[in-house]
Specification:
Helix 1 packs antiparallel against helix 3. By secondary structure, the protein is mostly helical. The protein is built from 3 helices and no strands.
């Protein structure tokens, strides 16, 4: 028995819901006390007052923080991919058993 369009859509929906829930759970654990616009404005004001070598050091530090955000995105991508592969394998096994 082939995987039907409905089963494929179900798998995609399940993965999407899982990713959304995982992201929401993770985001709720993050404590954001200041709005992003306020942070950026404060950053710009501070950077304007620094000499070039200090500006470079702060910029490198911020880049490192942003890169860790990319690592978080990669984590969720891999989580979704792994979950999706497991779900697909399970769905195929169920279909195989139903067709016997």
């Amino acid at each position: 028995m082939k995987m039907t369009k409905e089963i494929e859509e179900f798998i995609n929906l399940t993965i999407t819901e899982h990713m959304g829930k995982s992201y929401t759970d993770w985001k709720l654990k993050q404590q954001t006390e200041v709005a992003p616009d306020e942070v950026e404005e404060a950053y710009k004001k501070v950077i304007e007052t620094l000499p070039p070598e200090q500006e470079e050091a702060v910029t490198k530090y911020c880049d490192q923080i942003f890169n860790s955000g990319a690592e978080t995105e990669e984590f969720f991508y891999r989580l979704g991919l792994r979950d999706g592969m497991r779900l697909k394998k399970l769905a195929k096994e169920i279909l195989r058993q139903l067709s016997e």
